[in-house]
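Slide 14.
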Amino acid sequence: MQFRFIAAVGATALAVSLAGCSTSDAGEGASDDIELRMTMWSSNPDHLALFDEIADDYMADHPEVTSIEFESLTLDQLDTVLTTGITAGDAPDLTWLPVESSAEYIAAGALLDAAPVLESTEGYDYDDLVPALQERWRDGDAQYGVPFSTGALVMYYNADLYADAGVKSPADLIAEGDWTWESFREISKELTDATGVPGYVVNDFDFKNWTRLVPLFYAYGGSPWNDDATACTADSPEMQDAFELFNGMVFDDGSSPVPGQQVDFWGGQAGATSSFLSSNALLQDATYEWGIVPMPSGPAGDTQALGQAAIAALAAGDNHEAALDFLAFLTNAENAARLAQFFPPARESLLTTDVLVGSSTILTPELVQPIIDATLSSGRIFPVAENNAAVADALNSSLDEFVYVPDADLGEALGNVCAAIDPLL
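Slide 15: predicted structure.
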């Protein structure tokens, strides 16, 4: 992600601008004719239709809320839209937030504590929220966002391409007990050599979104910074090994696209990609057989990377009481189950194959079980830094300049990456 706006104004300015936006400062709006706004980074018609249905159900029982508008934007626009709206006094009431932004927004005082409303809402079952999956959003007894989507990055693969090329598929390697990044690299090159099609494309990456490489980092025991996000570890031997494999696929094997090369797995142009469960909607009209498997293991074992997004109420919004009440409604057990066909829930009672498959015509219990296993056992949430906007911008920029290049001296290159991000941690 590119957080250009926050990086430009600086984290200090953000904190100062938000410090005054406490619950007592923002207006509650009129007692009726409340209009709620929520930003989200999906424009998928099925996602939007479901959120509209939930909003209609809420308004039917809350006549004081006359409209709920969902504003679609892209993830790389999110911080610009939110901070510009806050500065202009036109902030939305609620928003999706990626877990990478959790610490930064909480520290800046930008989010409302939802815990009192959630705990007092009849039938909400606050204790059903899996504690380990709430950690990034809780500070003491306060809860500043409710994860509505917590799921592992998984690997989708085009079974027909592997079969037609006579190359082992990811499922075949799993059956042989050899599902590692090294073995995946081998079959990716074999597929590319046989068909001319890239064996692997990282979805939603385009060499600008470092988080999409986290499964590879974790498999090798690496991370761009230490556990408390105080020091860079991007130059560790583990990270160097991970990037050697990735750069090898891109620049040596030709089995993964080079920077600037556009490849669409969903359109049948690659053997495999890594993405979230919500991407299954892109395969609704697929003309090829496909499957889902966990991401490969590595020297550090099988540690799946969990992405997470939460719904949060903004302190700068105008309708605190209604926003928090709608947040509780959106994330209650019933609606979390409705959303689960696209977004893996963080409720213990809902992490079942029946719920995740739901009414989907393309998902099966066998396809979603790896996601449940990763969420409850082998999963680890993405790294989070408090100064995330500036850190992410510097990390993406330095990786682009020093690492994602042919014949990179990775020892030197990753040292340059740490030089760029260490002062920001």
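Speaker note: The longest helix spans residues 45-61.
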